[in-house]
Every structure is written in C-alpha cells, then in structure tokens.
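Example 4.3 (complexes with small molecules)
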Amino acid sequence: MEQMAQLEKKVVAEMERIFPRLVDMARTIYEHPELGYEERKAAGLLGAFLKERGFQVAAGLGSLPTAFRAFQGGPERPSVGFLAEYDALPGLGHACGHNLIAVASAGAGAALAAALPNGAGRVFVLGTPAEEMHGGKIRMIQEKAFEGVEAALMFHPSVRNAAVKRTLAMTELKVSFHGKSSHAAAAPELGINALDAMVLTFSAINALRQQIPEDARIHGIITCGGDAPNIIPAFTEARIAVRSLEHRAMEALIERVRACAAGAAQATGCSFDMETVGPAYEGLLPNYTLAGLFEKHVEALGLVMEDHDETGYIGSSDIGNLSRLMPVIHPELTIGAREALPHTTGFCDAVQSEEAQRVMGIAAKALALTGLNYLIDPDIRTKVRAEFEEAGQKLGGANRS
Ligand SMILES: [Zn+2]
Ligand SMILES: [Zn+2]
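Answer. The structure with zinc ion bound is encoded below.
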C-alpha cells in the first residue's frame, strides 16, 4: 500500500484538476436556487458529474425524488460518505451557501475515489435534500439511504472557522385553541375568546423563558389569530419551536409549554390541542477524532481555526439525527463575510465571492483527505468508532440524548 503522504498528494492533485468544474457547478446551483424537495437541477447536475467519474448513482430514493446515493469502490467496508446539501431559502436564494456544500462534498468524493488504491474501501456521496425546512436527512434515515456508510462528512459556510459546533435538539409544535364566536360589540359575553387563550399562552411562555436553562429556546408565531375584529375568535393556531442541547431537556420543556397552553385554556374556557409538526431534530453529537483530522488539514492548507464556544450561536440541523447513527463532522468555515450571518442577503452575496470559492476548494480537499485517512488507517477507524460508542453510552444509547 502506498504511503499516506503519497496518497494525500494524489487527492490534492485530483482536487486541483476538478476545481474549475466545482466552481462552475456551484455557480449554476446558485443561479437556479431550488427549495427543499424541488432540487431537481442541483441533484441532476451532481449525479451526472459523479456518474462521469465512475460512481454508481441511484437518483430518487423512496419518497425523496431529489435525494441520491452514489458510490464507488469496494469492498463494502471500510466506507466513508460525503453529504451534499443543495436546497435554497424562500425569497433569499442560496443565503446559507448550500451550493458550496454540494460541490465540496461531490468534489471530495470524486477526488478521493480517483486517488484511492483498489480494494481500499468504498466512497459514498449522498445527495441530501431539504435541510432548511423539512429535515430531509431524517427522512433519508427512515428510507435507509445511509446503509453501508460508516462515517459522514460535510462542511458548512459560516462567519467563523470552527471544527466543532453543536446543534440543538428541536421539536416544532402546533397549538390551537377552540372557543366560541360572537358579535364582539353586541354580545361579547356570549363568546369564548380563542385569541385571549393564545395571547395568554405566549405571555406564560415569556414568563417561563426566565426559568429555563441557558441553552434552551422557545419561540413561535401565531398563524391564525381570528377572522375579523368584530368577531370574537372561535379558533386560533400557533407554531412554536422548542429547542435544547439535550433531547430529554427538550421533552421536559415541551411539557411546560403544554402547561402554559392548558392554563390559558382553563382561564378562558377554551379547549386546546397540541401536536408535533414534522420529525424531531436531535442535537449533533460531535466526533472530535474526525474533526481534529479535518482541522489539521485545513490548517495545513492555510486557514486558521479559531477558539470558540461549541454551543454558542447555534441552531438545529438534520445532521444531528445522523450523528446518532454514525460518526459525523459538520465543521464551519468563514467565506469572508464576517458581518453577514447566514440567511441574510449579505451572506448570499458573499457565497458567490472569490473568497468563498477558495474556501470551498480548501474544504473539499480537507474533507477528501479526512476521508482518505479514515479509509487507509485502521488505527484512526478504531479511534473514531471508540469515541462514537463511548459518547453514545454516556447518553444511555446512541439514539437519545
Ligand atoms: Zn440555513
Ligand atoms: Zn445551512
């Protein structure tokens, strides 16, 4: 077997060869932003690119027409997978930079597969749609799309360089109140006011916020507040997100939100329903061994990682659920716009800058090199797996936190 350093050189050379193509594809996806589960163009483009490079590509997986699963090489194990997100945001386009994630992961898979000696393992690229709004990876897990993948790697454009960032467990709730309509001026005493119940619920949640752990978040909107000011509202509805680093803490908070709604229902005479919307997100379980390898590579390629709070400025992502099934990395790299946060027009502009392209190229190399280290070095695999098992045991089973 060739020395690791030789193979690393091969990976980097291959990445440099395909880099212009990655920039082209990133621009095409940027110029044609597609919302979650509508990413036909992006998935098709990446699938064709991988097929050209010898990957077997299965496009459209079960109930997910814009997901794909591509692989090359064997035997089946060891294996590594790169995650390509490609959905855009409504009204903002690629203001989260998923077009850069898409081509960095596809490029990493292609360069690694090209440089890998025969028989060294299997390289996967997974097209993972609808990260922003629908938790596409959670449905892909249900569809068994990650079968055979031992470890999953991706990077995310950001405002800082951080090898490890946690994410929050999250559940979205739909809360509705049922009262009784009446003329708001002529006979208000005959009505039961479902809007009052909703306003009291939000007031109770505001009070509750003072008593919850620092990492927890509760936030929401009223999606139906009544029909007309001269009718006592008989029906109101809200969407409320509950988040916490740990799944159990999130579940406890959901019960406290339920108590807020129950109290408001009792105070107003309304009845209420509370149900969950979509799948629950798990918090990201980091793998420091893999993240450390990625960090070493990006630093050798010229970026400087920063001291940071792993739990500061974080949201939720469907990679959290995957992190409970296999070791993952989801490092963040700044694309030059330190003032403009993701999901803003400023970040959207930065995504197509030359600096963003340069960082995408470094990320793609570092992802491929991390994958190479994992496939070639059995000691690394043992360490990565041991850390994953141990973290899962601490949580009392890998699927719960
Ligand atoms: Zn986003
Ligand atoms: Zn994103």
